C-alpha cells in the first residue's frame, strides 16, 4: 500500500509544480515588456553604507552622473569604522546633488540598518525614493529614468531586479545567480498576480508616503534584516505595486566567492521570510516542499521499479515545463547561462535550503555589519 500511495503523492507534487511554474511563474515568463513614458519627477536616491569604503569609492560616481534632470543622492553612513565617512564627505563637496546623513551608534538601535535608513528617508527632500545598496551599481546611466517611469498615481511601489556579477569558470557563481533569478521570478510573478510579497533593497523604489503609511519599519524594527522584503510584505498591495525588468533598470552587486559566505547570507534571507504574512509563508513553504518531494519520491519509486515508465515520464514533463519557464525568464533578466546546469543547480539549492532551515533552528544568523 505504501508504494501506490507514494506514487499518487508524486503525481500530486508534479501537479503542484505545474501550477507554480505555468500558472504563477508564467505570469512573468510570458509577460511582454511595456514601454512607459519617461517621467521627470524629483527623486531621492538613498544609499546606506557601513564599512563600505572600497565599494562606495567606485560606485557613488556612477550614481551621481545618472542621466536624469532632478535627483539627489542621500548617502547614509551608519557609524562606519573605516574610511566610508571620509569618502562620503569628499563626494558631498564634489557633487552638488549629494547630501550626507551621519548616523552615530545608538544603544537602542545599534547595528540596525533600519534605524539608519529611517533617518535617511526623513532627510530626503524628494517625495519619490529610489533605493540601492552600497555595493551595487546600475547597468546604465538611465537607471533612475527606467525605474521611475513606472510610477503612476496608483503605482507607488516599484520592484526592480538586483543581479549579481558574473564570475567566469565559477560554479558557485552560477548557483548564486540561478537562485537570484528564481527568487526574482517568484516575487515578480506574485506581484503580477496581484499578491506582491517581497522586493530587494538592491533595486526598489517607493513614494515616501508609503513608508509613513505603515509607520516605517516600526513593526519589525527589532528584526535586524528585512528593510526591503518585510517592508514590501507589509506595505505592498495589488493596487500600489508594479515591477520593472527592463535591462537598463538592473543593478549589479559583487557576489559571494565562498560557499560559507553565501550560506551565511542565505541564513539571513530565510530567517527573515519567517516573518512574512501567513499566505506568503504558506506559498513559499509549499513550493519548497514540492521541490524537495519531487527529488525524493522518485528515488523510492524507481528503486522498486514501481510504475517506472510513468514516473520517468512525469520527471521529464516537469523538467520540460520548468526549463521553458526559467529559460524565458532568464532571457528577460539576462541570466541565460545560469540555467544550463538547471537540474543539478536546483538539487544543490534544495538541499542547501534544507541545511539552512536546520541550522537556523539551532543558532541565529548574524545581521548587518
From TrEMBL:
The keyword Transmembrane applies. Residues 44-164, 171-326 form the Glycosyltransferase 2-like domain. Pfam families: Glyco_trans_2_3 (PF13632), Glycos_transf_2 (PF00535). InterPro entries: Glyco_trans_2-like, Nucleotide-diphossugar_trans. Keywords: Glycosyltransferase, Membrane, Transferase, Transmembrane, Transmembrane helix. The keyword Transmembrane helix applies. The chain crosses the membrane at residues 6-30, 284-302, 308-326, 338-362. Gene3D superfamilies: Spore Coat Polysaccharide Biosynthesis Protein SpsA, Chain A. Belongs to the glycosyltransferase 2 family. This is Glycosyltransferase involved in cell wall biosynthesis. It comes from Flavobacterium arsenatis.
Amino acid at each position: 500500500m505504501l508504494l501506490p500511495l507514494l506514487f499518487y503523492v508524486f503525481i500530486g507534487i508534479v501537479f503542484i509544480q505545474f501550477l507554480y511554474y505555468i500558472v504563477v511563474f508564467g505570469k512573468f515568463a510570458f509577460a511582454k515588456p511595456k514601454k512607459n513614458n519617461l517621467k521627470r519627477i524629483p527623486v531621492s536616491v538613498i544609499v546606506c553604507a557601513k564599512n563600505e569604503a572600497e565599494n562606495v569609492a567606485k560606485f557613488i560616481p556612477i550614481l551621481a552622473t545618472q542621466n536624469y534632470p532632478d535627483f539627489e543622492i542621500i548617502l547614509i553612513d551608519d557609524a562606519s569604522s573605516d574610511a566610508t565617512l571620509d569618502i562620503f564627505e569628499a563626494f558631498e563637496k564634489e557633487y552638488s546633488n549629494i547630501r550626507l546623513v551621519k548616523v552615530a551608534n545608538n544603544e537602542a538601535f545599534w547595528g540596525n540598518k533600519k534605524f539608519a535608513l529611517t533617518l535617511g528617508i526623513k532627510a530626503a527632500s524628494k517625495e519619490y525614493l529610489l533605493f540601492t545598496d552600497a555595493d551595487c551599481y546600475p547597468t546604465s546611466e538611465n537607471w533612475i529614468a527606467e525605474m521611475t517611469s513606472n510610477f503612476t498615481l496608483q503605482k507607488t511601489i516599484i520592484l526592480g531586479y538586483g543581479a549579481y556579477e558574473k564570475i567566469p569558470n565559477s560554479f558557485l557563481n552560477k548557483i548564486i545567480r540561478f537562485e537570484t533569478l528564481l527568487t526574482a521570478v517568484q516575487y515578480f510573478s506574485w506581484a503580477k498576480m496581484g499578491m506582491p510579497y517581497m522586493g530587494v533593497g538592491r533595486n526598489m523604489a517607493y513614494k515616501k508616503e508609503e513608508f509613513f503609511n505603515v509607520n516605517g519599519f516600526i513593526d519589525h524594527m527589532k528584526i535586524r534584516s528585512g528593510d526591503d522584503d518585510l517592508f514590501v510584505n507589509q506595505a505592498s498591495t495589488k493596487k500600489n505595486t508594479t515591477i520593472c525588468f527592463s535591462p537598463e533598470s538592473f543593478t549589479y552587486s559583487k557576489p559571494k566567492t565562498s560557499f560559507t559566505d553565501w550560506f551565511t547570507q542565505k541564513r539571513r534571507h530565510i530567517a527573515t521570510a519567517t516573518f512574512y504574512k501567513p499566505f506568503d509563508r504558506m506559498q513559499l513553504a509549499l513550493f519548497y516542499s514540492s521541490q524537495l518531494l519531487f527529488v525524493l519520491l522518485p528515488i523510492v519509486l524507481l528503486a522498486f521499479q514501481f510504475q517506472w515508465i510513468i514516473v520517468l515520464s512525469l520527471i521529464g514533463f516537469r523538467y520540460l515545463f520548468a526549463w521553458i519557464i526559467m529559460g524565458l525568464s532568464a532571457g528577460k533578466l539576462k541570466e541565460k547561462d545560469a540555467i544550463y546546469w538547471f537540474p543539478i543547480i536546483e538539487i544543490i539549492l534544495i538541499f542547501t535550503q534544507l541545511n539552512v532551515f536546520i541550522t537556523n533552528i539551532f543558532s541565529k544568523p548574524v545581521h548587518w555589519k
